[in-house]
Amino acid sequence: MSEVMNEEFVTITVDGRELQAPKGAMLIEVTDKANIKVPRFCYHEKLAISANCRMCLVEVEKAPKPLPACATPVMDGMIVHTQSDYARNAQKSVMEFLLINHPLDCPICDQGGECELQDVAMGYGQDVSEYVEGKRVVFDRNIGPLITTELTRCIHCTRCVRFGREIAGLRELGMTGRGENSLISTFIEQSIESEMSGNVIDICPVGALTAKPSRFAARAWELMQHASIAPHDCIGSNIFVHTLRGEVIRVVPRDNEAINEVWISDRDRFSYEGLASDDRLTAPMIREDGEWVEADWDEALQLASAEIRHALDTSASDEKGGDEDSEAGDASSKLAALISPSSTLEELYLLQKLMRSLGSGSIDHRLRQSDFSDQDFAPLIPWLGQDIENLENIDAALLIGSNTRKEQPIANHRLRKAAVTNKAQISFINAKEFEFNFPLANNIAVAQQQLAHELAAVAAAAFTASGEAVPSYIADAVSKATPNKAHKAIVQQLSQGENTSVLLGSQAAMHPSFAALRALAEAIAVQTGSIFGYLSEGSNSAGAWLAGAVPHRGPCNDADAVKGLNVSDWAEKAPTAAILVNVEPEHDVAQSQQVIKALTNASSVIAITAFRSPALEDVASIMLPAAAFTETSGTCVNAEGLMQSFKGANNPAGEARPGWKILRVLGNLLKLEGFDYVSSDQVRDELRGHCESIELDNSISGVAQVTLSATGGSFMRAADVPIYAADALVRRASSLQKTHDAIALAVSMNPADAARLDLDDEITSVSVKQGEGSAILRLIIDEKVPAGSAWIPMAVKGSELLGDPFGEVVIEKA
Amino acid sequence: MNAMIEAENTLSAHACEEIDALLKRYPAEQKKSALLGALNIAQHENRGFLTKELMQAVAEYLDLAEIEVYEVASFYSMYELKPVARHNVAVCTNISCMLMGSQSIVDHVENKLGIKLGESTKDGRIYLKQEEECLAACAGGPMMQVDHVYYEDLTAEKVDAILDALE
Ligand code: SF4
Ligand code: FES
Ligand code: FES
């Protein structure tokens, strides 16, 4: 009803109470707001009205028959009774009909205890069923690894069908047959492919659609509910973690209109399964003569602090303890740290504090980035530039290096609303043509080495349209570009709209010409009057910037902080010792080959990690078990800059400890000052104290010269991080790993490149060489990959054999 | 049965022409309006039944989700989703016809052909439709529809003559 601008109000009377209601509102919205209970099954506030279940019948005076509250608009002077005999009779009759074919087997139904039908039947059903005939039986369908169907229980409310059409943007589920033979199915058995599919579990009012991974694991009333924050993307969806005797049974959405509304992505819902994976690290481990042996915490932490001290002391005759000014200090090249951008704010802050207290500024969370050339000009926090909610109100947007549908499903849902209801003109420029679930104005795909040139063409169109002079730092790139129709159209859409955005996605941040993309995108935003923003990687990139987990700035932009090395410096200046926090170097780091080599040569590598991984076991000397996401308290900062703190929901696995505590004790053992926290809140508040008056601003405060290299003939790799490969937890979530989106490693290329390389349809696998790595990969010929590049995703099993996600590749017949 | 009848998997050029003609009757953005007709055309070309592939082809042709086509095809009794014999024989069993003795006609047909409602004869000649509702020829009940033709005021002899004449 929000479209009604000048809201007119009418007065109605419900059960003797006078209520004011916006004209045109449905009766059920008004009663819901006034807390008057009307039973319902098919009505759902986020879905279109279908009025098919009739459970919401109420008495309206002067109406000849009971009316469905969900589909009856309020009218001035309307007198409604929801509890009169007349209304109750109608409701009871409907209930009886609904129960005719519904099995009365709540004791063996997974929904029992949280079933809308069960609840309503308690209130409106009869004690004894008069129906003695045979009940309908529907055979269940296999609709994939996440959702179990128990279709005999379906009451045909069609919420799931409407969800598919209106929210997921894919018509997957449908109602087939008719009358008694109606049933919910997918087109003759296809699994559900939406990245938001799990939400049908919540909206199904009965036990017809339930969560497969947690099926029969617990009863709803046995579960403890803990509010938390989803750990995979920069949206920070609000969730509840449900535990039974200290074990996470499932995750469900926690309503927050400003962020995730009532939805969560499948990744946020099912990744908890990774918590129980076999390779959890459950005790501190020390490598002795090449063998991993368990140690107690005391021993492991003492050893860790000794190794850190030792590394800092070696050949330190001229020890300076870190230069005060911009030069990376001596300690910075001896001790370096990498931390996952999905770590908590407390872990990020304490790690940088630990490092800088030891004189080293070599700390980074930008593990998948490779172009750091403009980092000094980067904003305090690269953020969305607006509220998440605003994404659904935009008129036009340009997204660069982004696949929102798989990277930030909730942001994508907002964009989808804008495109579907506002007819927003949304365009993408990517290194591959991704599929979206809403109509796009432009979906441009160019080889990755052309991405910045493509953007330069849009910038050129933007400057032509605005008539402003091209600033010198991008003049070279812009002047060489010739905009085509699509580029001009994008500029026109952005300039004409009132609420428009230019957003850089996480693939842009990984791109080897990130600085150029950033400068050009910002210029386009300025010229077209658009908001400039980022959809960053991981759940806490914004927090990482704020906490100072970057080598060139301390907490809250502290320019005086000790400076150090970023990941790409590691190739030349390998540190003597390293600390890794929540990092699996083979998957989480772009330049994994160089970094793993540096770690192998380091005298000591301390891994604070929830999981063991083959590469960690190869390179580390000490592994300290860290609590995983539900097991620790902490804070995440989402893309809109919102700080959300959460508590632990269950105890850490085995002897694991929250990351912030491990770092605190390490700080104590190293005799550093200011490591006496008793709670994670204290850590957060200390950081907050540094940041009293920060303002979020994405404009780049100075700019590095952008020159675009001429694109040569070489064949380049391009990559994204597939949705279920993003981080260590989701890579271990077993049900998600069985879905369609769990991409198996393969090389995809354009038919033209396949022809050039003489690879015909018969050839199913090819040899791929990259740097010092090589692999035999399945070949997919795919027009969605632009000619000139080979698409090989990163962070999936096997990709560790290759190198840089954007490096040169040589592909031959296997 | 299956070996005898080869399913079409795509729409012929002719079918597409017919669907295009249908599409002209509706607004361009409402292609779904032509769905019933398009399914009729597809079913007709495929000797009386639809296949998964044909429904997919219709979905693609009309820009619809596959499930939308399947919902409609499975809803209406005039679409067959399994292979059936050449001639479609549907005896009305709704109320007027029932009062006029449609049950004895059904019994007669079943005995004569040696199949039950919903089955096809082994020689691939006749398919007896599962259940037919009122065809709006109540005044002539009992009645049946053979392919696209109505036969009214049925008796056992009349039915024999009609069925025997089918190729
Ligand atoms: S499966 Fe559930 S949500 Fe879908 S129609 Fe049936 S009862 Fe409604
Ligand atoms: S809730 Fe109103 S008809 Fe279903
Ligand atoms: S009842 Fe048979 S035609 Fe109407």
The largest sheet of chain A, given as strand count, sense and whether it forms a barrel, is:
7 strands, mixed
- Briefly note the structural class of the backbone of chain B: alpha+beta
Number of domains of chain B: 2
Largest sheet, spatial ordering of strands of chain B = 2-1-3-4
Helix fraction of chain B by DSSP (H/I, runs of at least 4): 40-55%
Mean pLDDT of chain B: 89
Biggest sheet architecture of chain B: 4 strands, mixed
Strand content of chain A: 15-25%
Oligomer: heterodimer
CATH class of the largest domain in chain B: Alpha Beta
Largest interface in this structure:
A-B, 12 and 9 residues
CATH H level, superfamily name of the largest domain in chain B: Glutaredoxin
Bound molecules: iron/sulfur cluster, FE2/S2 (inorganic) cluster
Task: Please explain how this structure is put together.
Chain A has 814 residues and is of the alpha/beta class. Chain A is 26% helix and 18% strand. Chain A has 23 helices and 32 strands. In chain A, strands 14-13-24-23-22-15-16 form a seven-stranded mixed beta sheet. Chain A has a five-stranded mixed beta sheet with strand order 2-1-5-3-4, covered by helices on one side. Chain B is built from seven helices and four strands; from the N terminus they run H-H-H-H-E-H-H-E-E-E-H. Chain B folds into two domains: 13-75, Arc Repressor Mutant, subunit A; 87-164, Glutaredoxin, CATH 3.40.30. Chain B has helices at 13-23, 35-45, 52-62, 66-75, 95-99, 102-113, 156-164, and strands at 87-91, 126-128, 144-146, 149-151. Chain B has a four-stranded mixed beta sheet, with helices on one face. The chains are: A alpha/beta (814), B alpha+beta (167). Residues 154-160, 184, 204-206, 208-209 of chain A line the site of iron/sulfur cluster (SF4).
